[in-house]
Design a protein that fits this description.
Layout (H helix, E strand, L loop, with lengths): L1 E3 L3 E3 L3 H9 L4 H4 L4 E8 L2 E6 L5 E9 L3 E6 L6 E11 L2 E10 L3 H20 L5
Length: 130
């Protein structure tokens, strides 16, 4: 299952956004209002829970300075990645798009497609808070 957030333009440089997203504690600022839990495990990992959803632990998997950050599920039960793509348009203007990719059975995919789509849309729209 592949989902993409709308592209969002943020009035910040790609370098600044990359540095902010490289620090996992800053993801708390991006979370939706219905967050029930947010806990930093270490410098590469955090766990969060939204009301009515299971808690998810994300780990930094891969990064390309100023252009891409990939987070992945710490558990192999629900394998997925969340990729942040940063494209600098001008010196202090960056386009951000989030991509969610996961391997789920059709029933699970049908159940989580809506909430996950809304979740990554919220994360992207909150990028200006960094």
């Amino acid at each position: 299952m592949n989902l993409e957030s709308p592209k969002v333009t943020v009035e910040k440089s790609a370098q600044y956004l990359f540095e902010q997203l490289s620090d996992v504690k800053n993801f708390e600022k991006l979370m939706p209002e219905n967050i029930a839990k947010f806990e930093v495990i270490d410098e590469n990992c955090f766990e969060f829970g939204l009301k009515g959803m299971p808690e998810i632990k994300l780990v930094k998997k891969e990064f390309t300075p100023n252009s891409k950050i990939v987070l992945g599920a710490a558990s192999s039960k629900l394998p997925f990645t969340l990729t942040g793509n940063l494209t600098e348009i001008e010196e202090n203007k960056t386009e951000v798009q989030l991509q969610f990719e996961g391997e789920f059975n059709p029933m699970m995919a049908m159940m989580i497609k809506g909430p996950i789509g809304k979740f990554i849309e919220t994360l992207a729209s909150n990028m200006g808070k960094l």
